[in-house]
Amino acid sequence: MFELTGRTFGTRRLLRGMFSIDIWTYGIGGGLRMPHPFNIVIGEGVELGRRCLVLHNTTVQRGAGTIVSSDCVLGAGATVLAGSVIQRRSIVGAGAVVHGAVPEGSVVMAPGPIIQRKRNEYQKNRDRAWRN
Questions:
Q1: Number of H helices, E strands in the chain
Q2: Does the model's pTM come out above 0.85?
């Protein structure tokens, strides 16, 4: 498994040549894990939190305000568009495209709707629906 520790290291050319990885290491927290480190793009200006898991063929578009918080998972082939904010402990499934905000503890699957929320929010919404 390939792991980045948050340090800036001069191996960008090596990563690009061997693994087709293009990563700007400026805003990456420690403990980034990439078990299949192929075809991964993390653009300039992206903030990636601690202990994230990024699978192959994933793209996080460059741009200020693009944030992937700590303990998130970006599945194979996932795309995070510029300006998106993914809150802590969220999962972006394989092939999903994220545009906008993803609440904490959510799961996003292709084609992109939130399919699971934190349990307490789900229960509140369910109770409101039953009352109406």
A1: 2, 16
A2: no
State residue 118's pLDDT score.
Answer: 59
Paired tokens of 129: 């629906």
- Residues whose CB is less than 8 angstroms from the CB of residue 131 and which lie 6 or more positions away in sequence, other chains included: none
CATH architecture entry for 2-131: 3 Solenoid (2.160)
List of E strands, 5-100: 22-23, 32-34, 41-42, 47-48, 53-54, 59-60, 67-68, 73-74, 79-80, 85-86, 91-92, 97-98
d(Cα 76, Cα 85) in Å, to the nearest integer?
19
Q: Tens of pLDDT along 75-116?
A: 999 999 999 999 999 999 999 999 999 999 999 988 656 666
Q: Which residues contact 105 (CB under 8 A, 6 or more apart)?
A: 87, 88, 89, 90, 117, 118
Write down the pLDDT at residue 119.
58
